[in-house]
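User: Sequence recovery, please. Input:
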C-alpha cells in the first residue's frame, strides 16, 4: 500500500524547524530529507527514522523495523508523531550524525562509432 501524501505533509510540517526539510516520492513511498540528508522514510503511512547512536539514546526504548522487505532496520516512530518538539529534536540529532551525501559526478556519455 502506498503512503498518502497528506500524511507525508503532516510529518514534514511537524519537523519543519529541524532544518531544510523536504520530501521526495520514490516508488510510491517517500524519503524525508533534512539539510540534504535522507533522515527518514515513510512507507505504508508509517515513519521510519534512520538508526543512529544519538537517536537511540534520545528515544530510549526503541522499536526497530525495516521500512520495506530487505531494508536495514530503522526506528519505527508511532506514539510521538504528534509531538512536534520531540520529533524535531530526533530529526536534528539524526541529521547531525549522518554523513554528508556523496557528490554525484555526471555520467560519461558513450559515443557511437
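Assistant: Recovered sequence (113 residues):
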Amino acid at each position: 500500500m502506498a503512503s498518502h501524501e497528506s500524511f507525508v505533509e503532516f510529518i514534514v510540517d511537524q519537523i519543519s524547524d529541524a532544518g531544510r526539510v523536504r520530501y521526495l516520492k520514490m516508488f510510491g513511498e517517500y524519503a524525508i530529507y533534512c539539510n540534504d540528508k535522507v533522515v527518514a522514510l515513510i512507507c505504508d503511512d508509517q515513519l521510519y527514522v534512520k538508526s543512529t547512536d544519538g537517536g537511540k539514546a534520545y528515544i530510549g526504548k526503541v522499536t526497530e523495523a525495516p521500512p520495506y522487505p530487505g531494508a536495514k532496520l530503522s526506528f519505527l516512530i508511532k506514539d510521538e508523531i504528534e509531538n512536534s518538539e520531540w520529533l524535531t529534536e530526533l530529526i536534528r540529532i539524526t541529521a547531525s550524525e549522518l554523513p554528508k551525501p556523496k557528490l554525484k559526478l555526471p555520467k560519461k556519455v558513450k559515443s557511437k562509432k
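The chain has three helices and six strands.
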